[in-house]
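Entry type: protein chain
Record version: 2
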Amino acid sequence: MTPSSTTDRRTTGLGLVEIGKLAYLTFAAYKVRFGLTALGMTIGTASLILVVTIALTGKDYVLRQIEAVGANMIEAYYAGGSNQAAARSDFLTLEDIGAVQREVPGIMYSSPMFKLKTAIGLGGKQRDIAVLGVSPDYRQIRNLQLLSGRFFGPPDRQEHDKTALVVEKLAIGMYGSPDAAIGQTIKLFALPFVVVGTFREGVETFGQSEITDDTVLIPDTVARYFTGSDLIETAYFSVADSSSVPGATEQIRQVLQSRHRPGSVYSVVNLTELLGVAAKAANALTAVLLLVSTVTLIVSGVGIMNIMLSTVNARVREIGVRKAVGATRREIRYQFLCEAAMIALAGGVVGIGVGLLIPLSLRWFAGFRIPISGLSAIIAIFVSSLVGIVFGTAPAARAANLDPVECLHYE
C-alpha cells in the first residue's frame, strides 16, 4: 500500500470527522466574525422562504377568487352564424337545456337566463336596473351568498309568483340595509314584486359578470312573460366534479350544435382555462421573485468568501505549522471548505426558522390562511450549503496552496 493511498483513506474516513471538529472549534473561536457573516445568509434564506410563501399565498388567493365565481360552471350562448343570417331557431331554448341535462352525464344544476332592462324610482330619480330571469339552481351555479330572506324555490317558479331578490348594494340604496328590504314591494314593468331575499356574489367581480350593482333576480317563468318568447340569452350549467368540466363543456357544445342548424355557432365556455392561466402567471411571478431573492444569497456568498480570505491571511502561521506536522493540501482545503459551509449552513438554518416562523405566527395568531411550502425549506438549506461550498472554494484553495516554509516565516 502506497503512502498516498494511506493519506487518501485517512482524509476521507476519520480525517473528515476530525476536520469537521476542527472547523467547529474555529467557528466557535471566531463566533462574532463568523456570526455576522452568517447573518447575511440568514437574511437571504429567510427572504427566499418568505418569497415562496407570499407567492403561494397570492396564487391561492387568486385561484380561490376565480373558483368562487363558479369553478364548475359552464356557460353557453348563441355566438352567431356561419355565412348566413341568424334565424329564430338558432337561439337557445328551454328544450336545449333539458336535452343537455338528459344527454350529458354529471350535470348537477342548470338555469336559463333571460336578461331584461327596466327603470325604478329611487331618490326621486329614475334608475335603470338589470332584471335577470333565472331558475332556483342559479344560486348554486354562481355561488351566490344569501344575505337575508330566502332564494325563490321550485314553488315560486311553478306558480309564476312575482318574487324578487335584490343585490346587496341596490338593497342598501333603496331600503337602507339588506334586512330592511325583505317584504318590501318593488315595481318592475309596472307590476309589484315582493322582495323575498337579498344577495351578493361569492366574490366581487366589479361588474365584469352578468350581475352588477343594479341587479334584480326573478323566476325565469315570470321573465318569459315580459320577453314574449322562450328564447334564452344564456344557459348556465354546473357539474359535480371540476375535473369533468372540460369534457362536459365539449359534450354540451355537441348537443347544442346537433339541435340547431349546421351553420350556427355556440360559445360554450368555463373557468378552467382561466384557472390554468392564473396558475401559470403565479408560477412565473414566483420564479421572478426567487431570482430576486437569489441575488441576496449571492451577496451573502461574496461576504463568506471575503471573510474566509481574511481568515486565511490571519491564520497563515497556523497553516504552516499544520503542514509542517504532516497535514496535506487536501486536509487544509477540506477544513476551510468545511468552515465556509458551516457558516452558510448556520445562517441558512436560522433563516429557515425565521422564514417559517413569520407565516406560522400569522396563521396561528391572526387566523390567516397562508400556505407554507416544506419544499422551499429543503431547497433553501440545499442552496445555503451550495453557496458556502462555491464561495468557500477560492479561500480554501489559497490556504491549501500556501508554501509551509513561507508560512512559518510569515509575520
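Comment: The chain has two domains: 3-65+277-408, 72-270.
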